[in-house]
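PROTEIN DESIGN WORKSHEET
SECTION A - STRUCTURE
LENGTH: 146
TOKENS:
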């Protein structure tokens, strides 16, 4: 059987950048990140919490599904609170003290996630709602004829 020819420039064989095993830089000493941004995306089915630094690089994330909730329980406020607590636990250990919060979506977990973030001990610099709102929306379907 012939040996397969590796693709030039693929990420796996390490020809792009100086990444080693998918990591950027050394992680022996955890980075000190004083400020960051917390994104909360709350849909009706799930809540995703992402914590980034000021430049937008993801530090940690969590979702209700990754916390072990399945089915309709993922959209509950308790699942959102658990996801927010899990995402923030890692960055508090890295020294994050201040953060801004950007909330998106109409889900039930919006307020619960925000409450969990407020209780974590991080000072909130701003809270911004960036939920997309249609100015006129899509064209409605044609009238039903019976």
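SECTION B - SEQUENCE
RESIDUE ASSIGNMENT:
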């Amino acid at each position: 059987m012939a040996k397969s020819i590796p693709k030039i420039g693929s990420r796996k064989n390490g020809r792009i950048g100086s990444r080693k095993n998918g990591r950027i830089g050394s992680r022996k000493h955890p980075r000190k990140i004083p400020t960051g941004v917390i994104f909360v995306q709350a849909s009706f089915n799930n809540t995703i919490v992402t914590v980034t630094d000021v430049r937008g690089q993801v530090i940690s994330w969590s979702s209700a599904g990754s916390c072990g909730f399945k089915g309709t329980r993922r959209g509950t406020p308790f699942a959102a609170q658990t996801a927010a607590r899990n995402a923030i636990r890692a960055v508090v250990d890295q020294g994050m003290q201040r953060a801004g919060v950007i909330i998106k979506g109409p889900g039930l977990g919006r307020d619960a996630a925000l409450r969990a973030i407020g209780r974590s001990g991080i000072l909130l610099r701003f809270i911004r709602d960036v939920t997309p709102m249609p100015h006129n929306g899509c064209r409605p379907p044609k009238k039903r004829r019976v």
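SECTION C - NOTES
Residues 105 and 133 are 10 Å apart (CA to CA).
The mean pLDDT is 85.
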